[in-house]
Known about the structure:
Helix content is 41%, strand content 6%. It is mostly helical. It has a single domain (17-141), classed as Alkaline Phosphatase, subunit A. Strands 1-2 form a two-stranded antiparallel sheet. Helix 2 packs antiparallel against helix 3 (50-72). 11% of the residues are buried. The mean pLDDT is 91.
Amino acid sequence: xxxxxxxxxxxxxxxxxxxxxxxxxxxxxxxxxxxxxxxxxxxxxxxxxxxxxxxxxxxxxxxxxxxxxxxxxxxxxxxxxxxxxxxxxxxxxxxxxxxxxxxxxxxxxxxxxxxxxxxxxxxxxxxxxxxxxxxxxxxxxxxxx
Length: 145
């Protein structure tokens, strides 16, 4: 694995989302897998700021997931996995151990949903993966959960 130093990546609310996407899109050209970690929603939760958490999630969607997804479409085979690394509720301002929601999409996705990507919708699916490495196996192999 290679660590890519992204100018403007601060691990805080002011991180440069566009730069993270740009560097990830470049890395896709030479790497089989790229992981983008964005700390901003977690930091907003630690501060108890719902406004900043929403803003961070909107920035991730618009400035990272959208551009990366658009770039991936030029490849015949790809998958994308989106998830938080842990829960950090605004009310507690600290990490908790609830299962996190996730979504996987790829060229070979046959199961589609019109649901929004929310904690409530994830909970309603009843789908839980107790061990993270098993989720990664499903992601890499393209197994339907």
